[in-house]
Amino acid sequence: MRSLPIIFVTVFSCAQPVSAGQVHHELRVRLFPSEHRIEATDSVTLPGPVQTRQITLNPELERIVARTGDRRLEVRYEGIVNDPLRQVGEEEARGQKDTAGSVGPEGVYLDGRSGWYPRVSQEGYEQVTFDLTVELPQGWDAVSQGTRTRHIVSDDGTVVRWVCENPQDAIWLVAGQYSEYTKRFGGIDAMAFFREPEETLAGKYLQAAGEYIGMYERLIGPYPYGKFALVENFWETGYGMPSFALLGPRVIRFPFIIETSYPHEILHNWWGNSVYIDYPSGNWGEGLTAYLSDHLLKEQRGLGSQHRQEVLQKYADYVLEGRDIPLTSFRSRHGSITEAVGYGKTMMFFHMLRLELGDELFRRGLQRFYAENLYRTADFGDLRTAFEAVSERDLGWFFDQWVSRIGAPILELGDIEITSVKGKGFGLDLDLRQVQEGEPYRLKVPVAVTLKGAEGVEQLVIPLEGARASTTIYLDSWPLRVDVDPGFDLFRRLDRLEIPPALTQAFGARKAVIVLPSKAPAGLLASYRSLAQVLTRTGPGQVEVIGDTDLKDLPPNVSIWVFGWENNLLPHILPAMEEYGVRLDVKTGEVGFADMAATILKRSERSIVLAGRHPLNPDLAVLWIGAQNAAAHPGLGRKLPHYHKYSYLAFTGDEPENTVKGRWPVKKSPLAGFPGGTYHPMGFLKDREPLVGRAAETQPNTQKPKPNEEKTIAD
Prior knowledge:
alpha+beta; Neutral Protease, domain 2; Immunoglobulin-like
């Protein structure tokens, strides 16, 4: 997030570094949204004696500073805070916007980098506690961290007080005209603040909050705050702050958010918002949060291996040679590459650590790490310390090869031979190799063997610490098939034939060409051109926009995005779709699927997107977008980057609304071998048990009793 310019003012500060103790803020704030104005008084208590030093404050705010005691100073300030929303990140089509601080009639958003309260650290990290009272106009309310201890609503306006005694790395203040809903679980208040009355939806969010908090308390430890609040923002966000989450007006109403983004933001109260992240040494928090929310919920539904495949595909499609960074260099997501590494690779790091130690030790390691680092800054070294303590093992090699090193292993399956072994049944000789450049990784490679007459598979692990490992597996039955890492348990660079072509492969290409249909009606062609300009900012590569009269055949060295039913290049890319049973008839304007006989997509009713492998270069992609409804193009430009993992899509209406989505099947993986030379489907591969199940609601936790809250609802 960008911040407003901050200037330094010479004032009284502390003789010792503030990081030696907390700075306490006693804030009295008045907000005037219609005027974009804030008035405030902050009585600051320092952890040491006052001497002449400096503080930082938003330069738009006029201030008066006075010393009030040996360890206290008072700052009175007022002014305008009105930074407009701006596009952020490397890929504008992903639709991320941000502000460095805003007070306005649509809502209020102030974070630690807005400069809305005085910061008094001498150097480096500052931890604060606070007592915040906010006065607002009638119909308005405010939310911050901690516990609400006062809430007065009257014709004169609203007065609300938030107290946070737990050390924080910043103070957030958000405000709006809300409808509030509350439900108590154990010792925790689940709260929801909507910009319009939403009783039914609020009830779903409140119930889910109780379930998720209970689940994570059992897995990690006590929830670190007295409340969790869901707050609707005035622009599209998915922010997780200490004890509350800020979701945008569209996002908050998507039905899938309760099962995806919502638990992710709740979990950040453990990772990032109470155990703080030492960003200069690498952001471990996003990957751990992704593993224990996004991945865990998929694992609970038996879809863990599918989720890992999608994560590894994103890395393969976006993190091409020369784009990689080590986990120690990841700070935050600002594009698809940093997301694939900082979220994806880090998520897989924790998955492999779990497999290395086993579920019980992994859970104990999480609990120890949380207990030892609560309300302090932690890094990968602290993670290593916790997991080494519970496992009584040296994990230096594991952290070194996955945290500090760039790249990924690439596996190959060599020759397979079967021999009859007297008294032992059959011997299966396997040859595994690492073929990436650089030093080999120290791996434990999962292998699944499908046996004749068996429904399931024989699962085993083969150590691979060098470039090659040859081993013999003794089996009671004849082996029909061998699969290497079929559950995608290892972080590695996938072979293209292990994963289906998808939008990620097109969006992640170094170079791509968007080909516009010259025969399309003028209005439709102009709309396609506008859509193309949006999608050029979808990924990290270079994208050129040309007409179909500029090409007679497919160039072999770039990904090709073909727009329109009328496009001259459409016949050249059809084989890439027909490989998966797609029937596209330009004359009738229909798209059919061999595996979905009942699904017929009509040109007049749907906006259709199909991805396939480049016929001349399987490392590249072809992408077709057939959307005759020009009114749907702005929505497609906004939505397609968020459907990146899919191979085919269909939308209806001007919005447009997704109605069909899916991924092509993987027909033959190079890491699947057939000892007899005849293809055989893999036996049933059971997904492992989840780390923790989802509970109905929280159990009482061990937090201190929350203070009595004064509630006054005036006539």
